Amino acid sequence: xxxxxxxxxxxxxFLGITAGLxxxxxxxxxxxxxxxxxxLAATNPGIVTVTxxxxxxLLAPALIARIQAEIPGLHIQRLIVERDPTRAAxxxxxxxxxxxxxxxxxxxxxxxxxxxxxxxGFFETVExxxxxxxxxxxxxxxxxxxxxxxALSLIFFALSGLYLRWPRRPxxxxxxxxxxxxxTGRNLYRALHAVVGGWVLVFYLISAGTGLWWSxxxxxxxxRHLLTTEQVEHERRGGGAKDAxxxxxxxxxxxxxxxxxxxxxxxxxxxxxxxxxxRAKLPGGxxxxxSDEVTVDGATGRIxxxxxxxxxxxxxxxxxxxxxxxxxxxxxxxGRIVMTLTSLTMPLFTVxxxxxxxxxxxxxxxxxxxxxxxxxxxxxxxxxLVAYASQTGSAERIARLTAxxxxxxxxxxxxxxxxxxxxxxxxxxxxASTYGEGEPPDAARGFARTLAEAPGDLSxxxxxxxxxxxxxxxxxxAFGHQIDRWLHAxxxxxxxxAIELDGDDADAQRLWQQQLASLGARTDQPDWTPxxxxxxxxxxxxxxxxxxxxxxTWHVALxxxxxxxxxxxxxxxxxxxxxxxxxxxxxxxxxxxxxxPAMRARLMTSILPSEAGPGFDPDTLRPLAHREYSIAxxxxxxxxxxxVRLCTAEDGLPGLGSGWLCGGAAIGxxxxxxxxxxxxxxxxxxxxxxxxxxxxxxxxxxxxxxxxQRAATGGGPAWLFWGERHPDHDDYHAAERRAxxxxxxxxxxATAWSRLGTGPRYVQDVVAMExxxxxxxxxxxxxxxxxxxxxxxxxxxxxxxxxxxxxAVLEEMxxxxxxxxxxx
Length: 824
Fold this sequence. Notes:
Blueprint (H helix, E strand, L loop, with lengths): L3 H31 L1 H8 L16 H11 L3 E9 L6 E7 L6 E5 L6 E3 L4 H13 L9 H23 L9 H4 L7 H27 L5 H11 L2 H8 L10 H11 L7 E7 L2 E7 L9 E7 L5 E5 L6 H7 L1 H5 L5 H13 L1 H27 L11 E6 L4 H12 L3 E5 L5 H5 L3 E7 L11 H7 L10 E8 L8 H12 L3 E2 L4 E4 L3 H13 L15 E10 L9 E8 L11 E4 L5 H11 L5 H8 L22 E4 L9 E6 L10 H9 L5 E7 L14 E6 L3 H14 L4 E7 L9 H9 L5 E6 L9 H7 L1 H9 L3 E6 L1 H16 L1 H9 L3 E5 L1
Helix pairs in contact: 1-4, 1-5, 1-13, 1-14, 3-10, 5-7, 7-13, 7-14, 8-11, 14-15, 25-27, 27-28
């Protein structure tokens, strides 16, 4: 069953891509119209504004006579007289029997017509665009219907948008008003769309609600019926023979007598249906409708109606001031400024809405491409499943890519995980989206109810979770974490810690790929969401374990070519490797491809299939995937330092990443690389926090980053527990570690040597021996960091820590960021 939220979202989306452009035009043009008088006055000195002369401004009857004498056959339809002697009067008129209305400014002291101001034609076009999109038929054509539909859509946008982003803690103002500009891509577009939308929601409702006044007669009549009476409106308009030409001078004298010669800021006289309607703005009035209104019979000068502003009922005032409410002037200059600024934001929603729409289309296209290559059903005998809970398709796309990478795996919706299916699994990978404020996707609501029950025995199962969410919400990735806790509570073993993915975060997706690769997943898949690589120069390479019976391990240093890289302790460097040239030469010989520099360069950066013969099409080659290495240095060093163990591939040649860094790339050459932020493994925000560092082998790199950071900033105590093969050959960076101990940066250090024959053999044995130290550090608020191999070390260390601290304590530390792991 489709939820109300889904229906509203789809309608919101559809109207956004249909009415959005119209609203953008109306917003910009409305903002311009709001300050049209000020703009014309500033750009037309001598026409809109005048220099007061020695003679005072003419009284209105004399001014009318002068104007009529200027042009034979001139018939005044409207006259606006200002109290300010520096502001010209304005007259609207027709000539003879013509129906065409003209407008001109008038010198208030002489009655001379000053002409049409520069820019008036522009503003006429702007007004036509705003009111009916400048389409044929004007107010009676299709344009008026389109703008009316757009105004109705704006009301729906405001109300449905409010519903769609309603937070669980609505009383926390940060949920409504705080805009995080550190976000990028789709998350930034969504944040701008939602947060700025909250800022302007009330103003858009006012703008749209009053805009409908001019689009639909039924709406206008309904508002009048609700707030006032038609009788009042009729009385204001009536009074005078429609075919007779009113005597404006006589009517003006009657108006002056009726108001007792009161001093007004502006008087507007309009001839309508044989009557003259006067609107006299009170001094200091915040808008033009703060005015006394008098209607005079144009033929006899009889007062038809006299409505002082002070006696106007609120309903009448609202109906009379619809235009002023529409442009914000009803609330004074501040209201007009705010309404103008909010109108100018209208294109922002159109642009961000379209960007979000295109991002959604790209995700659906990517999902379609993956679905085309993946079987829909999973055999019952499958023991490795990738379960997805998806709202928009992102989780399903990643799940199916994950199933493609893992041997003998299949992707299924999370609702397929019934007790019988879980009992037959050995490995489970879950890719779960969180919808809104911690809610499951619509299709996963049934499974969410299962999570409320106690799980069965899942001790036979190993699992991992990729949690998708949006950091805009306080319950970020809540549904994924709920599944993680439920599986753990059933006794299932984590393969690695849950990974959080915000939007299209390429770093998180590549981290998921890296963890899968450590479990035997295909490593020849290109990046699912590639990010640009930068140029780094290989500046140092030094063997760290000469004479070791293990694989050679190298200290490798790279410096950014442009000097612009930044990273934090705990971050990762991704490098784009190249093939061993011997592998490329063998491939050329096998396939018969031309041995040219261009072909070699192409093959060096491509995945080379193991089975290829003559006639092979090089256009079918895919690019190499990246390789990841923990960073041992801090940004202040100006270069990235790595600890890389040289591995051997199945063909007997060096592995791709390690082979390229440890021998393939020449010192001084450029390596393509990028920093991968790993915030879950960063140093504590407070340097005074104690840290316990645990790892093995090349995992020392990730731990050294924290130690070097602590050495640079100072702070709380730090302990290092690390394991390798033999102290005579494999004691990496021994001198620096001893110096850190002597300087007091390292409070304590213990090592395990698996080939020494005495003492603790593995790092988990050291952890067990140092149980009192670790318990005391945790009690003092320490953060635990584990870095190294997933196979063997990570699981054994986790089990040892669980025995020392208890599963509940370790889970709580993981949830609060005090138990962090970087394992591979």
